[in-house]
């Protein structure tokens, strides 16, 4: 007799609707392969080819040879298990100085299997007791909320404003959590061109947030996958660059700036940890035990590919990424212009105008749920992401959660000429299925 397992006996993350959001989007895309996807937040396919991989590997091997490693040592570094926290620490630390003005020792850098692992490692390491909770901007990237559910860590939402996260709201939420007898351990935020909202915090708000974190004894988990892709060259310092009290753990990824197939991210944790015997170490070193139980170490071959990119770039992704930045700028401007053309004069529809990144949010006069997305893909040939995926249950004005009449639009993965057609198809859906004026 074969084994049958009750779904109810499995962990809640297996069947939780919010945790399953990304799987659902992938399934819808597979069912409607000819639909124009304004849902996919992945990078554009045209910047790299598989032919580049060999060149990057050889560039990194040449770098190792320049450091004095023998052929045997170079081979071992790529083909064997390696240091848990990875071997790109020096190159990433240099990149952070050149591109962001962040100065940390290479020991403070953990190379991870994508930024998702960095989130899991940080949450598991910081949240030690049942009363420890994480504050998170809402709407929130599902990777953070899903990771927290997987670990059994409670996430307390901090509502986002049109200008991004409001530091005073953070202070109020943190105080309420403490008053309820729990400890707000950390705050998760994407300060620049957030996923899903596209909002970006003003510099003054960033500085104030650091003050609030110190007053509330909060650490900050700063996720920065889109910071390279502003619509202009206006300086937008990261929280970590402004951080003088080591409040910020910085989460980075090479998925958007290079390509996601490498699955390489990183965690910068330069906070000092003091043991019971007085020994002192860096938080990244302490968290290596957590990482070792997840993935043992990040693929050395994948690290070498990214290492080759960094070597060729002089450790400045900003400098060599100008073509990508120009492409994403053009796509976002194209998306915003298409929204103006297709929805001009319709007072039922509103959208924001992000200053960069991959995403914009459209308020629509219909319930933007899974059923409507299915209809959109089948009958109108366009896909998008329900904003309700980025809210917890019970958030917003309705008992069912927030974002029920809003959608996230992404413009990153499409050739520019496809964006306008996608928006026209979306406008037809809203015209046919939306509430009357």
What does this structure look like?
With 437 residues, this protein is α/β, with parallel strands linked by helices. The chain has two domains: 11-40 and 321-433, Alpha-Beta Complex (Aspartate Aminotransferase, domain 1); 55-319, Type I PLP-dependent aspartate aminotransferase-like (Major domain) (Aspartate Aminotransferase, domain 2), CATH 3.40.640.10. The chain has 17 helices and 15 strands. Strands 2-8-7-6-5-3-4 form a seven-stranded mixed β-sheet, sandwiched between helices. It has a four-stranded antiparallel β-sheet with strand order 11-12-15-14, covered by helices on one side. Strands 1-13 form a two-stranded parallel ribbon. Helix 6 (114-126) packs across helix 12 (288-294), helix 8 (167-179) packs parallel to helix 9 (203-215) and helix 15 packs parallel to helix 17 (416-433). The longest helix is centred in the C-terminal third of the chain and has 22 residues, at 322-343. The termini are far apart.
């Amino acid at each position: 007799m074969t084994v049958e397992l009750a779904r109810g006996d499995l962990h809640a993350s297996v069947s939780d609707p919010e945790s399953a959001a990304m799987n659902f989007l992938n399934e819808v895309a597979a069912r409607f392969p000819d639909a124009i996807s304004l849902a996919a937040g992945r990078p554009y396919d045209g910047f790299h080819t598989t032919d580049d991989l060999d060149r990057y590997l050889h560039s990194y091997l040449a770098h190792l040879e320049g450091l004095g490693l023998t052929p045997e040592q170079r081979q071992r570094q790529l083909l064997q298990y390696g240091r848990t926290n990875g071997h790109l620490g020096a190159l990433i630390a240099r990149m952070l100085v050149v591109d962001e003005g962040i100065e940390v020792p290479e020991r403070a850098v953990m190379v991870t299997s994508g930024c998702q692992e960095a989130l899991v490692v940080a949450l598991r390491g910081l949240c030690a007791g049942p009363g420890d909770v994480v504050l998170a901007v809402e709407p929130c990237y599902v990777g953070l909320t899903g990771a927290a559910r997987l670990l059994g860590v409670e996430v307390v939402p901090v509502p986002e404003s049109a200008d991004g996260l409001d530091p005073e709201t953070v202070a109020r939420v943190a105080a309420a959590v403490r008053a309820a007898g729990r400890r707000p351990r950390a705050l998760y935020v994407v300060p620049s061109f957030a996923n899903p909202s596209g909002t970006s915090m003003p510099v003054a708000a960033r500085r104030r947030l650091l003050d609030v974190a110190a007053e509330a004894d909060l650490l900050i988990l700063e996720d920065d996958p889109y910071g390279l892709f502003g619509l202009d060259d206006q300086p937008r310092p990261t929280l970590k660059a402004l951080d003088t009290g080591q409040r910020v753990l910085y989460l980075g990824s090479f998925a958007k700036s290079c390509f996601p197939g490498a699955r390489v991210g990183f965690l910068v944790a330069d906070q000092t940890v003091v043991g019971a015997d007085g020994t002192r170490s860096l938080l990244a070193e302490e968290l290596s035990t957590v990482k070792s139980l997840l993935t043992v170490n990040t693929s050395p071959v994948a690290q070498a590919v990214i290492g080759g990119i960094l070597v060729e770039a002089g450790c400045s992704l900003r400098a060599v990424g100008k073509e990508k930045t120009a492409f994403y700028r053009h796509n976002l401007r194209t998306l915003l212009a298409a929204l103006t053309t297709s929805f001009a004069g319709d007072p039922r529809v509103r959208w924001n105008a992000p200053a960069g990144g991959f995403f914009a949010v459209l308020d629509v006069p219909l319930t933007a749920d899974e059923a409507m997305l299915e209809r959109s893909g089948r009958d109108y040939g366009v896909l998008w992401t329900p904003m309700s995926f980025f809210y917890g249950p019970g958030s917003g004005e309705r008992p069912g959660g927030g974002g029920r009449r809003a959608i996230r639009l992404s413009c990153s993965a499409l050739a520019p000429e496809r964006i306008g057609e996608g928006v026209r198809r979306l406008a037809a859906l809203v015209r046919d299925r939306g509430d009357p004026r």
